[in-house]
Write a structure and sequence with these properties.
Elements lengths: L1 E13 L2 H31 L17 H7 L8 H21 L7 H10 L23 E5 L12 E3 L2 E3 L7 E4 L9 E9 L5 E12 L8 E7 L3 E4 L10 H18 L5 H35 L2 E4 L4 H4 L6 H7 L1 H15 L1
Parallel strand pairs: 8-10
Antiparallel strand pairs: 1-5, 1-7, 2-6, 3-4, 4-5, 6-7, 8-9
Helix pairs in contact: 1-3, 5-6, 6-9
């Protein structure tokens, strides 16, 4: 039996000065259009006296990218598919708010402002409400799609010999390709992003077909979530998660205290903010590396894994458990384990 697989591949890219300039411009155009949609949403909600509850997306008067290009001509220099994806991302954010949020709870920050500054929260402070994107929050990314063309050759986004070709970019960009794509894989879309250090990455969604043979699961493992040890398995072993955030918490708090004393927007503030971002990125990378290696070894040694089904979002609301639960990344681990086991079939 043949099964279609969609899998993501992330590589570091090394753009030239001209390519880097185009990427920065595309990031800015994507932010500009997304913020326009968010502003349109807020204006509409204000006009109807909205406080909380369901948002009817069909009633929001959203301008198309073609209409926005007439208002902001610089949008014409950016890939049109990237602008279309901005609209899709905004609609997905509103739908996510309608489906996953309770549509009446406020964020912790807004509740703190109410206690300390006596500022009443508004609908903008609802959990899950789409928010404005900003350079300060490191919102540097855009997504473009591949197209089949008349000959069904999917040639608009290609990766050959370590060189990536994407729409609107005149020359291919160099890629540090540490692993090959599957044979006959079709690149469906590409997301270009930049991290706080100024490094550029590309995330490719590749679609390919594999042959799956039905087999009986002989080696099965059960995992029970543990706050202290990450999990305890059915064979009596514990994962012993290293608690990377806890180890760097004191250092991170020190750097954040220094940042709080800097004048916002000054050169010293920017340098200190970069220090904090680098430390946070290091913690995140340590966690990702550990989770990937652990899920790989489990998927390699077992045919099936049964994991305790927990509501991690609800668990994160508990003051005594939230910090440790957010640190270990158990939700990411379940996702990693799922796709690695599917690949082993």
């Amino acid at each position: 039996m043949e099964t279609i697989i969609n899998k993501g591949y992330k590589f570091k890219i090394i753009p030239t000065a001209e390519q880097k300039q185009y990427f920065l411009q595309a990031f800015g155009c994507a932010r500009k259009l997304y913020n326009h949609y968010v502003d349109t949403l807020y204006t509409y909600l204000n006009s109807i006296g909205y406080e909380n509850g369901y948002i009817n997306l069909k009633e929001i008067p959203l301008d198309s990218p073609a209409e926005m290009k007439k208002v902001y001509p610089f949008l014409k220099d950016t890939d049109s598919l990237a602008l279309c994806n901005v609209g899709l991302n905004f609609k997905a954010a509103v739908n996510r708010f309608n489906e996953k949020s309770d549509k009446k709870s406020f964020t912790k920050g807004s509740l703190k402002r109410k206690r300390t500054l006596n500022i009443e929260p508004t609908f903008r402070d609802l959990k899950g409400m789409p928010r404005f994107k900003s350079k300060k929050n490191n919102d540097f990314s855009y997504t473009t799609n591949n197209q089949a063309g008349k000959e069904k050759d999917w040639h608009f986004i290609t990766l050959k010999n370590g060189m990536l070709s994407i729409p609107k970019l005149k020359t291919p960009v160099k890629v540090k390709q540490h692993r090959p794509l599957p044979e006959d894989a079709i690149i469906k879309n590409a997301t270009i992003s930049m991290d706080c250090r100024g490094n550029f990455h590309v995330s490719l969604c590749a679609q390919y077909t594999i042959h799956v043979e039905q087999k009986v699961s002989e080696k099965v493992l059960g995992l029970d979530y543990s706050q202290a040890d990450f999990y305890a398995d059915s064979e009596g072993r514990k994962a012993n998660y290293p608690h990377y955030y806890r180890k760097s918490e004191e250092k991170l708090a020190k750097e954040q205290r220094i940042l709080s004393r800097r004048e916002i927007g000054s050169n010293r503030w920017k340098k200190q903010k970069l220090k904090v971002s680098k430390l946070q990125m290091k913690i995140a990378n340590q966690r990702l590396d550990w989770l990937h290696k652990l899920s790989y070894h489990i998927a390699r040694d077992y045919d099936a894994v049964c994991v305790e089904d927990l509501d991690l979002r609800a668990l994160g609301q508990c003051l005594k458990l939230a910090k440790n639960q957010q640190d270990n990344g158990f939700g990411m681990f379940r996702n990693f384990l799922k796709y690695k086991l599917e690949k082993q079939v």
